[in-house]
Please model this.
Amino acid sequence: MPALRVSALPARLVRLVEDLRRKEDRLALVLSLVIGALVGLVVVAFILLTGRLTALMYPAGGAGWRRIVVPTLGSLITGYLLYRYFPLARGSGIPQTRAALFIHDGRISLRSVMGKFVCCVISLASGIPLGREGPSVYIGSGLSSVIARRLGLSRAQTRALIPVGGAAALTAAFNTPIAAVLFSLEEIIGDLHAPVLGSIVLASGASWMVLHLVLHDTPLFHVPDYHLVSPAELGAYVVLGIVGGLSSVAFVKLLLWLRARFAKMPRASQWIQPVAGGLTVGILGFFVPQILGVGYDQVERVLNGDVVLKVVVTLAVLKIIATSVAYASGNAGGIFGPSLFIGSMVGATVGSVAHLLFPASTAGPGAYALVGMGTAFAGIIRTPLTSVIMIFEVTRDYTIIVPLMISNLIAFYISQKLQKEPIYEALARQDGLHLPTSSSRTHSAVPLVSSAARDVPESLSPEMKIGEAAERVKDSALESWPVADELGLVGMVRTRHIAHAVDQGKLEMTIERLMQIARRSDGDKAVALPHVHNDQPLSRALARMRENGHKVLPVVSRANARIMLGVVTFGDILKEFGVDNAEELDYRDHPDLGT
Amino acid sequence: MRDMRTPLVQPAAPTPTATVSEFIATLAIVLAAIVGLVVFDTALARVDVAARKTYAAREFDIGKQFVGKGEIAAGLEHIRTATMLDSDNPTYGIALAQTTLADGRPAEAAQMLTPLLERNDTAGATNLAIARVLVNEGRVSEAKSYYHRAIYGFWPKGAEKNRTTARFELIDLLARENATQELLAELLPIQDDSTNDATQRKRIAHFFVVAGSPARAVTIFRDLLRHDPRDPESYVGLAEAALSIGDFATARTDLLAAQKLMPDDSSSLHPRIALTDSVIALDPTQSGLALPEQVRRAKNLLQMTLTSVRKCLGVQAPQVAVALDSATLLLVSGAAAGQAQSVEQNLSLAEQLWGLRRSRCAKEGNDGALALIHNRISQ
Model:
């Protein structure tokens, strides 16, 4: 950054800036507008560059071999770039954005942002069937983070700007400002009442403005007016909700399963893994070109009623496979766009069958494709409110909202039942990140674990003999002890189990062996690593204690569950809730619980 | 599972510090970046739009060629691509709707046109396309309204020609619907519009005959003959007008005049001349006929009408036809008070029967002469 001497600046400007920096609300207002405009323009550039590069890769009337070679080469190039230079730019960007928000104090490096931009342009232009919205959110949030840090803002202010940039990016990527605001609140922050709402709205508005300035009022999809033909048609939308929910679960499970398989492969193969996705996509795309790329043109065709039943069924199935393989193998791109594609094809399938059976009382398949988009979004991304508003904004038509809501909620419910963990949380967990869920965030008003946690007591090692361990814990009133190796926490062992082993004369048995036996005897209650996080409510800690029978739980880092930050005991929790318990209170003063 | 894809621990965030100058410099860089990006994005968007428009135009041309060859499905595919690539171009949208209509999907075509109409409800082309869809769906009264909007709507190019096309489509529709009053209302404003276009004036004159205003048709045809006395079509038009008012002799004269002007290609006139001849031979109201001849012709006309009515009602309700036959014979045989009275009674009865036939039976080609005579009697 060029160094400016303060003395060279007009005194009035310096005073103005100093005043602005002191007043956080004004600063937030100004930055929201600036970030909104900047992010909007960057995302527009991202979309346009991707489009132009795609046109170069796949010229009209181009040879069929391109459809195999281009995605394979694209994934090879991005695979190497991601492995060598931009490891954070893999995948969607939403879990990484949330990790930045909840774990890294809002820090996203400029290098990651640039990596995401370059890799996603190459990846998406080469025909990898992933979306641009997730990466856009990461780019937007990353730019916010970079600007905030360069401006010397506090960590809290930097964190607050992460969803602001995300909303601005999504607005530009999808031309849906309200849905972008909701998505930021519902998915990124996980709290619809977040205090940054005003900033998010402003940034979204600024982004929308620049989007219109450059690309004019061009909706993502041009959709005819659809409406409910008869009340009985709601039955068909219920069926769509069920099919959409099941398809969503199938997609999520396949993607997570494949990703887990790829993650088990040797680390040295990471640079070549994306090629597996690229080649799969290429082979499928050679026979069915419509699955290449994000596929919004195909979605628009279907939304406009250009539906052949056999084709839409094939596309729904192949897109699920292609996207799962491409994402799981580590290509750069999101699942936001593919969700809409899959949903529209599933919707068109249900709509075609419904219209075939009841032509007089059902709308054409295009209407179902439209509702299907929202349904799959609700089932896969698990943001039902955003999905309804998003479709409303895309179509600008109110009449389809009621069937959309019904269908969405059914898909959301089925998805929740059959796939407990939402996809972004599951992806983060696969990467070792324990991000807060939306439900855990809503408990912020109640006492948190951090308020009752105490420092880490001395831990036992897994190789320690029972005799030595018994000696260590004999004067302690703690009912469970943390067991840790050089990499961190490995589990908890109960004091009474140690005492029981001593009684049986198994003094040479290791703590690790004792834990294994205890786990077997616990059966269903056994948890490999029972723990809580600092920002979880105490009620969650009590529930965990009930689930696994430990009256002491380790408090661990969200970035790495093996890093212990403290412990929380049953007695401490009772005391925090104002319940007197003299026996438990004794733990506080016990020497073993000291630093 | 621990995966190295996403490093778990990033370097700790630096302690936030920035001097005023750094703060200002950062803001200045960001603002400069915004300005630069506006320029860059705008240029890129222009390139993108131009490329898309070119591609769309190519696809549209290919689509039109396919449609021209009757390959509607293939044409539809290309026109749809053109519409998606350049959605701002209403020509593509309208062409897509019209091709979809030609593909036998009027509901979809209407759905495609609705957003175009919402975007610009005064666009003549869009309104005309919607009118065509509505005609296809049998919603004639709504179609008329959209035809009017097309006629008085905005046409960026070739407004006069397009308005005339729209008006004549409406006129055709009204003629088919036999809405003579509305037809006349459409014809009157344009009767003097095309003084230099003989073909169009002949069309107008023809529709005046259909609208029940043959006198206006005669005026136009005579005017045309004044400019071109050797125009056989104008003579045929005059004959048509004369037939509609029951002036069969004049019609025959005009047809023969036309035949003289096109001796090499008069085969199309032969059936009309033959029809006129048979009408003249059948007409009981023709002036100068002796009473017995009038009686004979009246009876003949009644008999022919009866046969025609029986033929049509016999298919639909045989009992009604038999009853009708008996009653008619009884009436004719019992009404012999006088020859003149008999003529009157037979003609009156024939007219009633014809009215019945017209209300209950479809038109038949070989009833042309009967129709013309009854038309004259009713006048």
User: Anything to note?
Assistant: The two ends of chain B are 99 Å apart (CA to CA). Chain B touches chain A through 52 residues (CB under 8 Å).
